[in-house]
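@channel sequence for tomorrow's demo:
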Amino acid sequence: MRISKAPFELIAWISSICYLAFINPEDQHVSLCFFKIIGLPWCPGCGIGHAISFLLHGEMMSSFRSHPLGLFALIVLVSRIIKLITMEYGKYSAAISSLLPSAHKS
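structure tokens (generated this afternoon):
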């Protein structure tokens, strides 16, 4: 049986959501925003991490004020995680079932 590497994308998304769930969304943090680095005052993505973090803390209005698309981003991330888990489960399910004795084999 071949064991594949852990899916990097799945680990990255789950780690990111766990990080956002455990941080205090009202704290300031270091920004890696390209637009801020080059000095532009507005970025279409800035605040979405705070919005997701507020959502994970149950603060809907603060989330919407941070970024109106925070709920949509969280839905997209969760659906992607579910899809990746389903893909991995299907891969391992076939491998596990091939190892198990089958009642139909003669």
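heads up for whoever presents: The CA atoms of residues 1 and 99 lie 9 Å apart.
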